[in-house]
Amino acid sequence: MGRVIIGMDPHKRSATIEIINEREKILGQGRFGTDRDGYAAMLKLGRQHKDRLWAVEGCNGIGRHIAQRLVADGETVLDVPAKLSARARLFDTGQGRKTDPADAHLRRDRRAARRRSAAGCRR
């Protein structure tokens, strides 16, 4: 099994994720609460994949609470700035409207994850 990227669109009380492999095949997805049980279920789904990377929107903003929990649990987290997500959404769909599943899909976009610095979020 190769590396997977887990894209996340975080909110105060929920997080939508999508897991893809190197061939961009979707391996899993879901919406989880940010309470203890929801977070544990999301982490369990992510940890089914040994070589993983979490791409979280706004590690220094709306995604900070969940990014810090992931880092504290030993996960590798990359920050995907909201501005980059909006631009990718526009180029990918031809419009800039936001939906959680679409944003989770964009969050895991390898090109976006490679272009940015992970300062402040990486373990």
Automatic annotation (TrEMBL):
Signal peptide: none annotated. GO terms for biological process: DNA transposition. It comes from the Bacteria. Residues 107-123 have a biased composition (Basic residues). Residues 90-123 are annotated as: Disordered. It holds the Pfam family DEDD_Tnp_IS110. Residues 95-106 have a biased composition (Basic and acidic residues). GO terms for molecular function: DNA binding; transposase activity. Residues 6-105 form the Transposase IS110-like N-terminal domain. This is Transposase IS110-like N-terminal domain-containing protein. The lineage of its organism: Bacteria, Bacillati, Actinomycetota, Actinomycetes, Micromonosporales.
